[in-house]
Amino acid sequence: MAVIEQTPPAVTRTSTVRPKKGLRKYWHLYAAISPFYLLFLGFGLIPVGFSLWVSFHRWDGLGSMEWAGLSQYRYLLSDSDFWSSVGNTIVIWALATFPMIFLAMVTAVLLNSAVRFKNVYRVAYFLPNVTSVVAIAIIFGSVFSTNFGLVNGLLQAVGLDQVAWLNTPWGIKVAVATLMTWQWTGYNAIIFLAGLQTIPGELYEAARMDGAGPVQTFFRITLPMMRPVLLFVLVISTVTGLQSFSEPQVLLQTNTNDSPFSGGPGHAGRTMVLYFFQQTFDNNDFGYGAAVAWGIFLVVIIFSIINWRLVQRRGED
Predict the structure, then answer these.
(1) pLDDT of residue 34
(2) What are the chain's domains?
(3) How wide is the angle at C-alpha 38 spanned by C-alphas 33 and 39, nearest 5°?
Protein backbone atom coordinates (compact mmCIF):
# COMPACT_ATOMS: atom_id res chain seq x y z
CA MET A 1 0.00 0.00 0.00
CA ALA A 2 1.55 3.22 -1.17
CA VAL A 3 1.80 6.05 1.26
CA ILE A 4 0.81 9.43 -0.20
CA GLU A 5 2.89 12.18 1.21
CA GLN A 6 1.08 15.47 1.70
CA THR A 7 3.05 18.64 1.43
CA PRO A 8 2.19 21.34 3.94
CA PRO A 9 0.44 24.38 2.47
CA ALA A 10 2.67 27.24 1.56
CA VAL A 11 2.76 29.99 4.12
CA THR A 12 2.23 33.39 2.61
CA ARG A 13 4.09 36.17 4.29
CA THR A 14 2.12 39.34 4.87
CA SER A 15 3.92 42.48 3.99
CA THR A 16 5.02 44.45 6.99
CA VAL A 17 5.34 47.64 4.96
CA ARG A 18 2.58 49.98 6.05
CA PRO A 19 1.12 52.42 3.58
CA LYS A 20 2.15 56.01 4.07
CA LYS A 21 -0.29 58.25 5.74
CA GLY A 22 -2.03 60.90 3.66
CA LEU A 23 -0.02 63.83 4.96
CA ARG A 24 3.33 62.09 4.49
CA LYS A 25 2.43 60.66 1.09
CA TYR A 26 1.11 63.88 -0.41
CA TRP A 27 3.23 66.39 1.47
CA HIS A 28 4.58 67.92 -1.72
CA LEU A 29 1.03 68.61 -2.94
CA TYR A 30 0.08 70.22 0.35
CA ALA A 31 3.27 72.28 0.20
CA ALA A 32 2.32 73.49 -3.28
CA ILE A 33 -1.04 74.88 -2.12
CA SER A 34 0.15 76.03 1.30
CA PRO A 35 0.88 79.67 0.28
CA PHE A 36 -2.82 80.34 -0.22
CA TYR A 37 -3.73 78.99 3.21
CA LEU A 38 -0.86 80.81 4.88
CA LEU A 39 -1.94 84.08 3.28
CA PHE A 40 -5.56 83.41 4.21
CA LEU A 41 -4.52 82.65 7.77
CA GLY A 42 -2.32 85.74 8.08
CA PHE A 43 -4.50 88.27 6.26
CA GLY A 44 -7.97 86.75 6.67
CA LEU A 45 -8.67 84.41 9.56
CA ILE A 46 -6.39 85.98 12.18
CA PRO A 47 -7.59 89.58 11.51
CA VAL A 48 -11.22 88.42 11.67
CA GLY A 49 -10.62 86.72 15.00
CA PHE A 50 -8.71 89.76 16.28
CA SER A 51 -11.55 92.10 15.27
CA LEU A 52 -13.96 89.94 17.27
CA TRP A 53 -11.63 90.15 20.26
CA VAL A 54 -11.27 93.94 19.87
CA SER A 55 -15.05 94.37 19.77
CA PHE A 56 -15.20 93.31 23.43
CA HIS A 57 -12.69 96.03 24.43
CA ARG A 58 -12.34 99.77 24.47
CA TRP A 59 -9.25 100.66 22.47
CA ASP A 60 -8.01 103.73 20.65
CA GLY A 61 -5.58 101.76 18.49
CA LEU A 62 -2.43 102.74 20.43
CA GLY A 63 -2.90 102.39 24.17
CA SER A 64 -3.85 99.41 26.27
CA MET A 65 -7.15 97.63 25.84
CA GLU A 66 -9.90 97.87 28.44
CA TRP A 67 -12.37 95.02 28.73
CA ALA A 68 -15.92 96.15 27.90
CA GLY A 69 -17.76 92.87 27.48
CA LEU A 70 -21.05 93.14 25.62
CA SER A 71 -21.55 96.83 26.45
CA GLN A 72 -20.51 97.97 22.96
CA TYR A 73 -22.97 95.57 21.32
CA ARG A 74 -25.73 96.80 23.64
CA TYR A 75 -24.91 100.37 22.66
CA LEU A 76 -24.89 99.32 18.98
CA LEU A 77 -28.47 98.06 19.27
CA SER A 78 -29.60 101.47 20.54
CA ASP A 79 -27.33 103.58 18.31
CA SER A 80 -29.66 105.65 16.12
CA ASP A 81 -26.80 106.70 13.84
CA PHE A 82 -25.96 103.09 13.07
CA TRP A 83 -29.56 102.21 12.25
CA SER A 84 -29.82 105.35 10.13
CA SER A 85 -26.80 104.14 8.15
CA VAL A 86 -28.45 100.73 7.81
CA GLY A 87 -31.56 102.38 6.36
CA ASN A 88 -29.49 104.50 3.96
CA THR A 89 -27.60 101.43 2.78
CA ILE A 90 -30.76 99.40 2.17
CA VAL A 91 -32.39 102.23 0.19
CA ILE A 92 -29.29 102.78 -1.96
CA TRP A 93 -28.93 99.02 -2.47
CA ALA A 94 -32.56 98.69 -3.59
CA LEU A 95 -32.33 101.70 -5.92
CA ALA A 96 -29.20 100.27 -7.51
CA THR A 97 -29.70 96.50 -7.50
CA PHE A 98 -33.12 95.96 -9.04
CA PRO A 99 -32.66 98.34 -12.01
CA MET A 100 -29.17 96.95 -12.47
CA ILE A 101 -30.38 93.33 -12.64
CA PHE A 102 -33.13 94.31 -15.10
CA LEU A 103 -30.72 96.22 -17.36
CA ALA A 104 -28.12 93.46 -17.11
CA MET A 105 -30.65 90.83 -18.16
CA VAL A 106 -31.87 92.92 -21.11
CA THR A 107 -28.28 93.61 -22.15
CA ALA A 108 -27.40 89.91 -21.93
CA VAL A 109 -30.37 88.93 -24.08
CA LEU A 110 -29.38 91.51 -26.70
CA LEU A 111 -25.77 90.36 -26.64
CA ASN A 112 -26.86 86.73 -26.96
CA SER A 113 -28.90 87.53 -30.07
CA ALA A 114 -26.28 89.78 -31.64
CA VAL A 115 -24.61 88.40 -34.74
CA ARG A 116 -21.68 90.74 -35.32
CA PHE A 117 -19.16 92.38 -32.99
CA LYS A 118 -20.11 90.24 -29.97
CA ASN A 119 -16.64 90.43 -28.42
CA VAL A 120 -16.49 94.20 -28.90
CA TYR A 121 -19.79 94.63 -27.06
CA ARG A 122 -18.66 92.35 -24.23
CA VAL A 123 -15.48 94.35 -23.67
CA ALA A 124 -17.36 97.64 -23.86
CA TYR A 125 -19.93 96.59 -21.27
CA PHE A 126 -17.25 95.20 -18.96
CA LEU A 127 -15.09 98.35 -18.97
CA PRO A 128 -17.06 100.26 -16.28
CA ASN A 129 -16.32 97.50 -13.78
CA VAL A 130 -12.55 97.75 -14.22
CA THR A 131 -12.48 101.55 -14.32
CA SER A 132 -11.21 103.37 -11.24
CA VAL A 133 -14.00 104.19 -8.80
CA VAL A 134 -12.41 107.58 -8.15
CA ALA A 135 -12.55 108.46 -11.84
CA ILE A 136 -16.15 107.26 -12.08
CA ALA A 137 -17.15 109.30 -9.01
CA ILE A 138 -15.57 112.46 -10.41
CA ILE A 139 -17.43 112.01 -13.71
CA PHE A 140 -20.75 111.35 -11.98
CA GLY A 141 -20.16 114.36 -9.74
CA SER A 142 -20.07 116.46 -12.89
CA VAL A 143 -23.12 114.68 -14.33
CA PHE A 144 -25.18 115.41 -11.20
CA SER A 145 -23.83 118.90 -10.63
CA THR A 146 -26.52 121.42 -9.74
CA ASN A 147 -25.57 124.22 -12.08
CA PHE A 148 -23.60 122.56 -14.88
CA GLY A 149 -24.63 118.90 -14.65
CA LEU A 150 -25.83 116.87 -17.59
CA VAL A 151 -28.90 115.59 -15.72
CA ASN A 152 -30.09 119.10 -14.84
CA GLY A 153 -29.39 120.19 -18.39
CA LEU A 154 -31.72 117.48 -19.67
CA LEU A 155 -34.35 118.46 -17.09
CA GLN A 156 -34.21 122.09 -18.21
CA ALA A 157 -34.44 121.00 -21.84
CA VAL A 158 -37.84 119.43 -21.18
CA GLY A 159 -39.05 122.37 -19.09
CA LEU A 160 -38.41 121.02 -15.58
CA ASP A 161 -36.61 122.71 -12.70
CA GLN A 162 -33.11 121.92 -11.58
CA VAL A 163 -32.53 119.44 -8.75
CA ALA A 164 -29.74 119.82 -6.20
CA TRP A 165 -28.81 116.15 -6.45
CA LEU A 166 -25.79 116.22 -4.15
CA ASN A 167 -27.33 118.61 -1.62
CA THR A 168 -30.61 116.83 -0.86
CA PRO A 169 -31.07 113.50 0.96
CA TRP A 170 -32.96 111.72 -1.83
CA GLY A 171 -30.76 113.26 -4.51
CA ILE A 172 -27.65 111.81 -2.87
CA LYS A 173 -29.19 108.34 -2.73
CA VAL A 174 -30.25 108.50 -6.38
CA ALA A 175 -26.81 109.72 -7.48
CA VAL A 176 -24.95 106.99 -5.58
CA ALA A 177 -27.37 104.30 -6.78
CA THR A 178 -27.02 105.46 -10.39
CA LEU A 179 -23.24 105.29 -10.13
CA MET A 180 -23.40 101.73 -8.76
CA THR A 181 -25.91 100.68 -11.42
CA TRP A 182 -23.68 102.00 -14.21
CA GLN A 183 -20.63 100.32 -12.67
CA TRP A 184 -22.07 96.81 -12.25
CA THR A 185 -24.58 96.42 -15.09
CA GLY A 186 -22.03 95.29 -17.65
CA TYR A 187 -20.32 92.90 -15.25
CA ASN A 188 -23.57 91.12 -14.40
CA ALA A 189 -24.62 91.18 -18.06
CA ILE A 190 -21.56 89.08 -18.89
CA ILE A 191 -22.56 86.59 -16.15
CA PHE A 192 -26.13 86.45 -17.49
CA LEU A 193 -24.76 85.99 -21.00
CA ALA A 194 -22.75 82.96 -19.87
CA GLY A 195 -25.93 81.51 -18.36
CA LEU A 196 -27.96 82.17 -21.51
CA GLN A 197 -25.44 80.32 -23.65
CA THR A 198 -25.91 77.16 -21.56
CA ILE A 199 -29.64 76.91 -22.40
CA PRO A 200 -30.19 74.29 -25.14
CA GLY A 201 -31.39 75.75 -28.41
CA GLU A 202 -33.81 72.85 -28.86
CA LEU A 203 -36.04 74.33 -26.18
CA TYR A 204 -36.47 77.56 -28.14
CA GLU A 205 -37.08 75.65 -31.37
CA ALA A 206 -39.79 73.56 -29.72
CA ALA A 207 -41.38 76.70 -28.26
CA ARG A 208 -41.44 78.40 -31.68
CA MET A 209 -43.03 75.30 -33.22
CA ASP A 210 -45.74 75.46 -30.55
CA GLY A 211 -46.43 79.07 -31.47
CA ALA A 212 -44.81 80.76 -28.44
CA GLY A 213 -43.77 84.37 -28.91
CA PRO A 214 -40.61 86.08 -27.59
CA VAL A 215 -42.30 87.22 -24.36
CA GLN A 216 -43.71 83.78 -23.59
CA THR A 217 -40.36 82.18 -24.45
CA PHE A 218 -38.55 84.50 -22.07
CA PHE A 219 -40.86 83.93 -19.10
CA ARG A 220 -41.47 80.21 -19.69
CA ILE A 221 -37.98 79.08 -20.75
CA THR A 222 -35.28 81.70 -20.29
CA LEU A 223 -36.19 82.97 -16.84
CA PRO A 224 -36.74 79.52 -15.21
CA MET A 225 -33.51 78.18 -16.72
CA MET A 226 -31.64 81.28 -15.55
CA ARG A 227 -32.84 81.05 -11.95
CA PRO A 228 -29.52 79.67 -10.53
CA VAL A 229 -27.57 82.42 -12.29
CA LEU A 230 -30.08 85.02 -11.13
CA LEU A 231 -29.71 83.77 -7.57
CA PHE A 232 -25.93 84.05 -7.81
CA VAL A 233 -26.09 87.60 -9.19
CA LEU A 234 -28.63 88.67 -6.57
CA VAL A 235 -26.59 87.32 -3.66
CA ILE A 236 -23.33 88.81 -4.95
CA SER A 237 -25.06 92.15 -5.60
CA THR A 238 -26.45 92.07 -2.07
CA VAL A 239 -23.05 91.40 -0.53
CA THR A 240 -21.30 94.10 -2.56
CA GLY A 241 -24.15 96.62 -2.43
CA LEU A 242 -24.58 96.48 1.34
CA GLN A 243 -20.83 97.06 1.73
CA SER A 244 -20.72 100.13 -0.52
CA PHE A 245 -18.03 102.55 0.58
CA SER A 246 -15.93 104.00 -2.23
CA GLU A 247 -18.88 105.20 -4.32
CA PRO A 248 -20.57 107.48 -1.74
CA GLN A 249 -17.30 108.44 -0.06
CA VAL A 250 -15.52 109.69 -3.19
CA LEU A 251 -18.66 111.14 -4.80
CA LEU A 252 -19.50 113.23 -1.73
CA GLN A 253 -15.91 114.12 -0.85
CA THR A 254 -15.21 115.59 -4.30
CA ASN A 255 -18.49 117.50 -4.52
CA THR A 256 -19.33 118.64 -0.97
CA ASN A 257 -17.46 120.40 1.81
CA ASP A 258 -18.51 117.93 4.52
CA SER A 259 -16.40 115.25 6.13
CA PRO A 260 -15.65 112.34 3.76
CA PHE A 261 -17.44 109.98 6.16
CA SER A 262 -20.43 112.18 7.04
CA GLY A 263 -22.60 111.13 4.10
CA GLY A 264 -23.52 114.63 2.94
CA PRO A 265 -26.53 116.71 4.05
CA GLY A 266 -28.58 114.95 6.66
CA HIS A 267 -26.11 112.03 6.56
CA ALA A 268 -28.30 110.63 3.77
CA GLY A 269 -25.37 109.10 1.95
CA ARG A 270 -23.68 107.60 5.01
CA THR A 271 -23.70 103.84 4.48
CA MET A 272 -22.87 101.22 7.08
CA VAL A 273 -19.24 100.95 5.99
CA LEU A 274 -18.87 104.75 5.97
CA TYR A 275 -20.18 104.79 9.53
CA PHE A 276 -17.70 102.07 10.45
CA PHE A 277 -14.81 104.12 9.05
CA GLN A 278 -16.07 107.23 10.84
CA GLN A 279 -16.15 105.52 14.23
CA THR A 280 -12.84 103.73 13.73
CA PHE A 281 -10.60 106.30 12.08
CA ASP A 282 -12.27 109.65 12.73
CA ASN A 283 -13.16 108.94 16.36
CA ASN A 284 -10.26 106.48 16.97
CA ASP A 285 -12.69 104.10 18.64
CA PHE A 286 -11.40 100.78 17.35
CA GLY A 287 -13.40 98.71 19.81
CA TYR A 288 -16.76 100.15 18.84
CA GLY A 289 -15.71 100.17 15.18
CA ALA A 290 -15.10 96.42 15.40
CA ALA A 291 -18.56 95.96 16.92
CA VAL A 292 -20.04 97.98 14.03
CA ALA A 293 -18.16 95.76 11.56
CA TRP A 294 -19.69 92.63 13.07
CA GLY A 295 -23.10 94.29 12.97
CA ILE A 296 -22.58 94.93 9.25
CA PHE A 297 -21.64 91.29 8.82
CA LEU A 298 -24.89 90.13 10.41
CA VAL A 299 -26.98 92.53 8.29
CA VAL A 300 -25.32 91.28 5.09
CA ILE A 301 -25.83 87.64 6.08
CA ILE A 302 -29.50 88.19 6.93
CA PHE A 303 -30.27 89.95 3.65
CA SER A 304 -28.37 87.36 1.63
CA ILE A 305 -30.37 84.56 3.25
CA ILE A 306 -33.65 86.41 2.65
CA ASN A 307 -32.84 86.92 -1.05
CA TRP A 308 -31.73 83.32 -1.43
CA ARG A 309 -34.90 82.00 0.18
CA LEU A 310 -37.16 84.24 -1.93
CA VAL A 311 -35.59 83.12 -5.20
CA GLN A 312 -35.56 79.47 -4.12
CA ARG A 313 -39.20 79.58 -3.06
CA ARG A 314 -40.25 81.09 -6.39
CA GLY A 315 -38.27 78.36 -8.12
CA GLU A 316 -40.13 75.67 -6.18
CA ASP A 317 -43.49 77.28 -6.95
Answers:
(1) 87
(2) 88-316 (1.10.3720.10)
(3) 105
